[in-house]
Amino acid sequence: MWTTARALLAALSALAVLDANPAGAQSLQPAGWDAGMRMAEAVDRNPDPNVVEVDFEARVATVEIAPGLKVDAWTYNGTIPGPMIRVKVGDRLIVHFTNNLPRPSTIHWHGLRVPIDMDGVPGYSQEPVQPGGTFTYDFVVPDAGIYWYHPHVMSAAQVGFGLYGAFLVEDSTETETIGIADDLVLVLSDIDVDDDGALLPADTGGTVGMLFGREGNRVLVNGRRLPELVARSGAPQRWRVVNAAKSRYFKLDLGEGHVFRKIGGDGGLTEYSEDHDFIVLGAGERAGVLVTPTGEPGGEGLVRSLLHDRGYGSIFGRDFESLFTIRFADEPPYDPGPLPRTSREMEAYDLEGATGIDLELTLQKDPYDQTFAYGINHVPFWRAKPILAGLGETQVCNVTNSTAWSHPLHLHGFFFLVLDEAGEPVRPLEWKDTVDIPHERTVRLTVRFDERPGTWIFHCHILDHADGGLLSAVHLGLPPEEFRNLAEH
Ligand SMILES: [Cu+2]
Question: In angstroms, what is the span from residue 471 Cα to ligand 1's centroid?
Fold first, then answer.
């Protein structure tokens, strides 16, 4: 029973490293090691060291995703992914957004604890930005970690056409303490194009396509097909990985004899580091890992995504995906000793008195028009009533997935902790904003709502599923009659 369990709340920045890397935080990689994978970064035009002020223009632009394969994609500032935002914890970010797309759009800051009017969801938190229109996003960034941004209008289509980017919130003490300077952000995604690079329609396959969740036919890493990283064998690296695909899961594999030391998740460092053979990320999820690629100097390794069963028909007749190659520099292997371990202090709080909520992820026939729709507790978002919550309230949610497909469930504006999956406790604890709810399983999680009143949505991050009904809202600290449903907008 949830009332007898204890959940833990993480202190915001406490970090202890058990085995510090004696090498210190100096690059061990050859010059230009990540040139084949580097993403554009947003240019800060504000001289204040604690304010990052950038210009974002959403527009159609030609991008080359593979040698000779050019796509007229939907972009921020002309690149896929859009420019990476790099800030320090506590910085103020100002984004002057201009929409020069042919359709309305917004920017949602995935995972960031922003005020409600910065959350970017038409119908709940802001007006859509019309073609030719502008909007200024302006907020303080409260938590270190790897996040991302994307539109919240026609989400499956707009994300699928190329609108997403990484958002790195740095904590300089982390790099010093972990002692690994070679840091790489990996944005995994896919895009659906024909052999000439023309974008394929976002509604292929009709209802069946929606039910499954459409995946792009070309997997991209930092916007490229099979890019190359150059590395010194044995030199440790820190990777922060974002799954920005609209439906696809990734199951990262470094090959025989390699492990991932997972140190971070959606919301910064986890309770303690833990080694994994693979890293599985549902759409919207992130992970921070330490890795030590090893191979013959002059040789090559391959980073792959293995098959992940996300439900009916999701692995049949498919094979692994090649993500990127690691070419080992022609220099003697480095001997790093053991990788550092990390931990983060967690402060306990009691779940006695928490409000219990039961959520069922469902697929049902709409009684009005007899079409299939996803829903939460059998109701698609266009007929959903919100969950009501008070400021400071703690809720414990039993989320049961009754459908044949897994759903990565994302809550806007707040972190939560996963307590258990199918009755098994989940450790190490991790601040999550997106968690995979496997098909025909139950996951129990807890969230404490803070002092930011508003209507915060939660939805499946397989964006076809969200568009297809799997979305609802938490109406926090406001009178119930102030709730507006997206469908009424
Ligand atoms: Cu889903």
Answer: 9
Domain ranges of the chain: 2-10+346-488, 51-171, 180-343
User: What single letter denotes the amino acid at residue 109?
Assistant: W
Cα(472) to ligand 1 centroid in Å equals 13
How distant is the alpha carbon of residue 463 from its chain centre?
Answer: 12
C-beta separation of 422 from 441 below 8 A? yes
* Ligand 1 center from residue 52 Cα (angstroms): 34
Cα 351 to middle of ligand 1, angstroms: 28
Q: Do domains 2-10+346-488 and 180-343 have the same CATH topology?
A: yes
Could you write out the DSSP letters of every residue in 447-480? EE--S--EEEEEEESSHHHHHTT-EEEEEESS-G
pLDDT tens column, 402-459:
999 999 999 999 999 999 999 999 999 999 999 999 999 999 999 999 999 999 999 9
Query: pTM of the full predicted structure?
Result: 0.94
Taking only the tens place, the pLDDT of each residue in 261-298 is: 999 999 999 999 999 999 999 999 999 999 999 999 99
Residue that is written with structure tokens 């010059």 in the block: 31
The confidence score (pLDDT) of residue 19 equals 43
Cα separation, 125 vs 116, whole angstroms = 6
Is the preceding omega at residue 338 within 30 degrees of 0, hence cis?
no
Q: Is 304 helix (H, G, I), strand (E, B) or coil?
A: strand
d(CA 137, CA 279): 33
Specify the DSSP class assigned to residue 277: S
CATH of domain 51-171: 2.60.40.420
Please tell me the distance between residue 179's alpha carbon and the centre of ligand 1 in angstroms.
38
Distance 111 CA to ligand 1 centre (A): 18
> Which CATH architecture is the domain 180-343 placed in?
Sandwich (2.60)
- The CA–CA distances, whole Å, from 203 to 39, 150, 157, 211, 458 equal 29, 19, 8, 11, 23
Spacing, Cα 29 to ligand 1 middle (Å): 40
Classified by CATH at the fold level, domain 2-10+346-488 comes out as Immunoglobulin-like (2.60.40)
CA of 284 to the centre of ligand 1 (A): 11
Distance 468 CA to ligand 1 centre (A): 9
Residue 82 to residue 75: CA distance in whole angstroms: 6
Task: Calculate the alpha carbon distances from 301 to 33, 180, 226, 294, 297 in Å.
Answer: 14, 21, 12, 8, 11
Residue 319, Cβ density class (10 Å: 0-12 exposed, 13-18 middle, ≥19 buried): exposed
459 alpha carbon – ligand 1 mean position (Å): 8
Q: Which of 281, 289, 286 is nearest to 310 (CA)?
A: 281
CA-based nearest residue to 363, from 406, 419, 423, 422: 406
